[in-house]
Design a protein that fits this description.
Elements lengths: L1 E2 L5 H10 L6 H11 L13 H10 E2 L4 E7 L5 E6 L5 E8 L4 E4 L3 E3 L8 H4 L2 E4 L2 H15 L11 E4 L9 H12 L11 E5 L3 H10 L3 E5 L5 H7 L8 H12 L7 E7 L7 H14 L3 E7 L13 H13 L4 E3 L22 H4 L15
Parallel strand pairs: 1-2, 6-9, 9-10, 10-11, 11-12, 12-13, 13-14
Antiparallel strand pairs: 3-4, 4-5, 5-6, 7-8
Bound molecules: S-adenosyl-L-homocysteine and iron/sulfur cluster (SF4).
Length: 368
């Protein structure tokens, strides 16, 4: 049984050809599933009768299950979704005056173990399938709907939830294609942002496969500190990471990289470190912006959030050097929906068995 949510346009056409159906049905199916939110084949009225009757025998539309839906005082909404075998993931909607952003997860847990991240501390279980990634947008879209003017409420997507998206490349790309495809969600390339801790070869592959906006979790101005905070740096150090960022923008010179930088008191937030950051980026030579993220504490974490004045001093040094710099507002605090607090329920396989390599690029446990 093929779960149709696992296939983008090209995948759907190939599957249709394989079962002896006309490839143009793929566009019709995408419009029904993603634009009209229909999951009942019998309601897809412009499909040929014979095809419509055949579909339930060969295909299904299987989504994660929403197990809780919490609304914060500031409008942030957190969905907890069950993807089977007691694995829970989180999807967060963040409304702002000019946009509505959905933050999507790509893995159950994360194997990369950044020292300040709650998801990383829970360990890793498995990659999400394409259906489970795009299913988060499908479900949130249905829950949030349209505004009174008929505009969609979710205008932007950030792949910044649980997991390292570029460690789940093969499932991620079809999901991104569906976000961008005019027959599906039709979001513009710049309104979809993939956030990575810096898996260099996969950044190059993403540029070729689906060059969305890119955010890079930098968090430190030198290798010695980044090795500790973001251990993947030991494999792909800063010189390589900066070169990969530059290559990413080669084909889109008007784009920029967003550098995320979590503010940890006394660890990476001094004025000297801000200057070191300016020197690092200045040498790299490409367009970028900074997004400073006040650390979100979680039980058992050894770090503290930098005080506000320390964050503004740091920001002012970056601004003074000519970089657009924003400080992320902490949203959804009351429902634990802030960055790095996404804490579903992870049956950790990494620590228990220690058999998985740190980066897994093939989807595991595909449901199709
Ligand atoms: N794995 C990807 C995307 C998910 S994390 C990545 O690392 O980029 C999304 C962002 O939240 C990253 O910039 C991450 O470093 C940051 N983050 C993780 N834990 C955090 C915490 N406790 N407080 C603030 N930001 C955190
Ligand atoms: Fe994984 Fe990103 Fe958390 Fe690091 S910050 S452990 S890469 S989710």
């Amino acid at each position: 049984m093929q779960n149709l949510l696992d296939l983008d346009l090209a995948g759907l056409k190939a599957w249709l050809a394989q079962i002896g159906e006309k490839p143009f049905r793929a566009n019709q199916l995408l419009r029904w599933i993603y634009q009209r939110g229909e999951t009942d084949f019998s309601a897809m009225s412009d499909l040929a009768r014979v095809f419509r009757d055949r579909l339930p025998m060969v295909a299904e539309i299987r989504l994660p299950t929403i197990v809780s839906d919490k609304l914060s005082d500031d409008g942030t909404r957190k969905f907890l979704m069950d993807v089977g075998a007691s694995n829970l993931i989180e999807t967060v909607f963040i409304p702002e005056s000019d946009r509505g952003t959905l933050c999507i997860s790509t893995q159950v847990g994360c194997a990369l173990d950044c020292s300040f991240c709650s998801t990383g501390k829970q360990g890793f279980n498995r990659n999400l399938t394409t259906a489970e990634i795009i299913g988060q947008l499908w479900l949130a879209n249905r829950a949030l709907g349209f505004d009174p003017a008929g505009e969609r409420i979710i205008s932007n997507v950030v792949i910044m939830g649980m997991g390292e998206p570029l460690a789940n490349f093969d499932a991620l790309v079809p999901a991104l294609n569906l976000m961008l495809d005019d027959h599906a969600y039709g979001l513009s390339r710049r309104r979809v942002t993939v956030s990575t801790s810096g898996i260099v070869p996969a950044m190059d592959r993403l540029r070729e496969a689906c060059p969305t906006a890119l955010a890079v979790s930098l968090h430190a101005p030198n290798d010695a500190l980044r090795d500790v905070l973001v251990p993947i740096n030991q494999k792909y150090p800063l010189t390589e990471l900066m070169a990969a960022c530059k290559r990413y923008l080669d084909k889109a010179p008007r784009d920029f990289i967003t550098f995320e930088y979590v503010m940890l008191e006394g660890v990476n937030d001094s004025p000297a470190q801000a200057k070191e950051l300016v020197a690092l980026i200045g040498k790299a030579g490409f367009r970028c912006k900074f997004n400073l993220i006040p650390f979100n504490p979680f039980p058992g974490s050894p770090y503290r959030r930098s005080p506000r004045d320390r964050i503004s001093t740091f920001a002012n040094i970056l601004i003074g050097a000519g970089y657009v710099t924003t400080v992320r507002k902490t949203r959804g605090d009351d429902i634990d929906a802030a960055c790095g607090q996404l804490a579903g329920q992870v049956q950790d396989k990494t620590r228990r068995t220690r058999q998985l390599p740190p980066i897994i690029t093939q989807p595991h446990g595909s449901t199709s």
